[in-house]
Amino acid sequence: MSIEQTLIERSGHKCELCGSTESLSVYEVPPVAEAHSDKCIYTCQICKDQIENNSELVVNHWHCLNDSMWSQTPAVQVMAWRMLNRLTTEGWAKDLLDMLYLEEETQSWAQKVIAEIDEIKHIDSNGVQL
Question: Using an 8 Å Cβ cutoff, are 29 and 40 in contact?
Answer without folding.
Answer: yes
